[in-house]
């Protein structure tokens, strides 16, 4: 267990000294129709999961699939873009749009979408940017999805034959790209090389807002938020924290609050800190812990609560949640469950629960952490392995916190794609 006195502030001590470990949810084995070794990659608030399997073959292609968490062995293979070519499912929105990637007949990777209501249909390829006549620019040749939202809007790259990266958005169910950096001046706005990391569900002029990290001329990454106006996107650079060299954004919510981290000179004594921007134009609130531990924001939910990781005084990584306007009083530490010494959280839902993996009795185990509320202590629900195995982990978490999915290693050491409905 972590040393509570080392944090040095009473509010955090009160919220972190007690954390009960319970087992309330159970995995559903989603089956192996699509292959022998399976993983869950996405799940929505309706309990519909997607993932990928490797068949029991030395040469067969990866097979993406769709399944219902509420039904054992419900896995259904998704169709490829081209017969005989591999595909991969990445995510599924609450609206049922599935984002993924397939190779076309030329073995070029192409972003695609399926719809959960028609799993037997061939996916739709998301088109790259078309060519330009004046000034001359050839059409791009491939596409990649980098982020998506619960509507099914996909954001990613349109890539040219010489590997120029232009950030684009495809609205839900639409294969036509829109450039995020657009301009009436020649070829300006192509090859921005930004990395999209988050997409809001809220809309401005019919389009969601986008968080991304973009290169600058001096080599320092700039965190930015793009918000649609009537005809194009307006790009706002998030302010850098006082004294920092650079900041990175990791995600944003529907109120356009965003989270990430900032890096400072002399990081041995001035370590990286979580940064939370309450608006795209205001300076970030940063998290400085009394023991000067490294910490970095990972996600923010629609309630404005931040999930962050930190390095403790043993050198191990653990996690916390933070209400930025409350300062240090807004922190809840996420204690490792019984039998574990560390946590690796990856998602915070809108009900403020956190999905994580931990080393319970030295076996990786998927868990859900529930915060302390109304005088009740925080609790951790660690999911028991099924099929006679000892290892399992979570990879995906629905936005509402109602479902989670991942992998279970069974007693023959095969990988089961699993998911669970959560209390």
UniProtKB/TrEMBL annotation:
Keyword annotations: Signal
Endpoints of the signal sequence: 1-24
Record's protein name: Uncharacterized protein
Q: Which organism is it from?
A: Pseudomonas khavaziana
Q: Lineage from the top down?
A: Bacteria, Pseudomonadati, Pseudomonadota, Gammaproteobacteria, Pseudomonadales
């Amino acid at each position: 267990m972590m040393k509570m006195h080392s944090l040095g502030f009473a509010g955090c001590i009160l919220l972190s000294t007690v954390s009960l470990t319970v087992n309330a949810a159970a995995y559903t084995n989603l089956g192996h129709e699509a292959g022998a070794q399976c993983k869950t990659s996405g799940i929505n608030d309706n309990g519909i999961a997607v993932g990928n399997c490797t068949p029991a073959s030395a040469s067969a292609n990866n097979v993406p699939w769709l399944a219902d968490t509420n039904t054992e062995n419900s896995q259904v293979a998704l169709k490829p873009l081209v017969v005989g070519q591999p595909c991969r499912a990445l995510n599924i929105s609450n609206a049922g749009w599935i984002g993924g990637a397939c190779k076309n007949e030329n073995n070029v990777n192409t972003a695609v979408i399926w719809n959960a209501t028609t799993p037997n249909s061939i996916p739709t390829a998301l088109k790259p940017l078309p060519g330009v006549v004046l000034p001359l620019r050839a059409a791009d040749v491939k596409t990649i999805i980098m982020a998506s939202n619960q509507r099914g809007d996909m954001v990613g790259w349109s890539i040219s034959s010489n590997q120029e990266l232009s950030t684009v958005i495809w609205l839900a169910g639409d294969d036509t790209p829109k450039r995020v950096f657009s301009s009436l001046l020649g070829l300006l706005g192509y090859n921005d090389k930004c990395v999209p990391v988050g997409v809001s569900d809220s809309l401005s002029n019919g389009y969601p807002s986008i968080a991304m990290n973009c290169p600058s001329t001096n080599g320092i990454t700039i965190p930015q938020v793009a918000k649609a106006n009537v005809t194009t996107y307006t790009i706002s650079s998030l302010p850098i924290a006082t004294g920092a060299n650079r900041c990175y954004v990791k995600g944003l919510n529907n109120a356009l609050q965003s989270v990430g981290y900032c890096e400072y000179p002399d990081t041995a004594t001035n370590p990286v800190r979580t940064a939370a921007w309450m608006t795209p134009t205001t300076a970030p609130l940063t998290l400085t812990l009394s023991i000067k531990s490294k910490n970095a924001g990972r996600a923010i939910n629609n309630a404005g609560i931040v999930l962050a990781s930190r390095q403790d005084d043993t050198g191990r990584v653990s996690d916390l949640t933070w209400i930025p306007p409350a300062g240090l009083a807004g922190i809840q530490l996420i204690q490792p469950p019984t039998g574990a010494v560390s946590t690796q959280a990856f998602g915070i839902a809108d009900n403020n629960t956190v999905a994580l993996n931990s080393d319970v009795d030295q076996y990786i185990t998927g868990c859900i952490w529930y915060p302390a509320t109304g005088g009740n202590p925080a609790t951790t629900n660690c999911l028991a392995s099924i099929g006679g195995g000892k290892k399992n982990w979570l990879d995906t978490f629905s936005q509402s916190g109602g479902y989670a999915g991942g992998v279970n290693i069974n007693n023959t050491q095969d990988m089961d794609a699993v998911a669970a409905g959560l209390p």
